Amino acid sequence: MILNLTNLKDCMEKVVMDKLDHRNIDKEVEHFTSTPSTTENLAVYIFEELKKHMSHPKLLYEVKVHETDKNVMYFRGEYDENVSSDF
């Protein structure tokens, strides 16, 4: 077994659901008091938080966040903090 799904579910509950579900993210989640709560930033946040709490963080390949049925953000752990998001 590569990863016990019960452990993954527990990690998802602790890291994602308990911290983000039914919350005013901009006011109640410290990270987002200074970072815009865009779908892109949510995906990065979830990825990084999952890595911190997983027993084998190298197994985390991708986080996918659905904003709507047609608006989906994928994050695979690589980004450049120096790139401007102003287009």
TrEMBL record:
UniProt cofactor(s): Zn(2+)
GO aspect biological process, one term: tetrahydrobiopterin biosynthetic process
GO cellular component, one term: mitochondrion
Keyword ATP-binding: no
Keywords assigned: Lyase, Metal-binding, Tetrahydrobiopterin biosynthesis, Zinc
InterPro entries for the chain: 6-PTP_synth/QueD, 6-PTP_synth/QueD_sf
Entry's Gene Ontology molecular function annotations: 6-pyruvoyltetrahydropterin synthase activity; metal ion binding
Pathway: Cofactor biosynthesis; tetrahydrobiopterin biosynthesis; tetrahydrobiopterin from 7,8-dihydroneopterin triphosphate: step 1/3
EC primary class: lyase
Pfam families to which the protein is assigned, alphabetical: PTPS
EC number: 4.2.3.12
Gene3D superfamilies: 6-pyruvoyl tetrahydropterin synthase/QueD
Superkingdom of origin organism: Eukaryota
UniProt record similarity statement: Belongs to the PTPS family.
Annotated protein name in UniProt: 6-pyruvoyltetrahydropterin synthase
Origin species: Lasius niger (Black garden ant)
